[in-house]
Amino acid sequence: MGRWRDGTGTLRVVGGADGADGGPGGGSNGAKEDPGGVAGSAGRAEGIPLTIAASYRARARGLLGRDGLTGALLLTPASGVHTFRMRFAIDVAYLDRRLTVLDVHTLRPGRLGRPRLRSRHVLEAEAGALERWGVRRGVRVVIAPGPSAPPPSSVR
């Protein structure tokens, strides 16, 4: 059983509102069929820069003290977030074990996001970014970890 590690990676959005992600049995094969594109990102083919926060310390720090965020931040494991002492509004996507989006919300600073029972990971980005990238309920995301953040064996 593998675990995520702190590091960097690339986020890609597969599928869409019409269920083009290959359905429930699509697995990671659906992502390999769309090697260059990021659905809903207006032609953005290079992927989205991602920071992975898997340790307690990295998750606790999160976006505190930052004035903005380039790309996204993946908190794992996590089922809820807050924006206390944050300086900017964020979009929050709750992901299940298969990296399918369960829910998406925008939180202003000083708010507490309600935990989601089936959520295993939380994806954070600046407000409005998830909509631009096509991240919405039911869509699946694929994470290509950098050298310091291998994925757990259940996600490969």
Structural write-up:
The protein is mostly beta strands. It has a single domain (7-145), classed as Protein of unknown function DUF192 (Jelly Rolls, Sandwich). It is built from 3 helices and 7 strands; from the N terminus they run βαβαββββαβ. The protein has helices spanning 29-32, 56-61, 129-133, and strands at residues 7-14, 48-53, 72-75, 90-95, 101-107, 121-126, 140-145. Strands 5-4-6-3-2-1-7 form a 7-stranded mixed beta sheet. A hairpin with a 5-residue loop joins strand 4 and strand 5. The protein is globular. Residues 16-29 have a biased composition (Gly residues). Residues 1-42 are annotated as: Disordered. It holds the Pfam family DUF192.
Key phrases:
globular; mainly beta; seven-stranded mixed β-sheet; 156 residues; Jelly Rolls; 3 helices
Strands side by side in the biggest sheet: 5-4-6-3-2-1-7
Estimated structural class: mainly beta
Shape: globular
Give the count of helical stretches: 3
* CATH superfamily grouping: Protein of unknown function DUF192
Q: What is the CATH topology assignment?
A: Jelly Rolls
Radius of gyration: 14 Å
- By CATH reckoning, the class would read Mainly Beta
How many DSSP-defined strands?
A: 7
Which H/E pattern describes the elements?
EHEHEEEEHE
Give the helix proportion (percent range). Answer: under 10%
- Sheet with the most strands? 7 strands, mixed
Amino- and carboxy-terminal Cα gap: 11 Å
Mean pLDDT, all residues: 75
β content, as a range? Answer: 25-35%
CATH-level-2 architecture: Sandwich
Overall structural domain count? 1
The low-confidence runs, each spanning 5 or more residues with pLDDT under 50, are 17-45
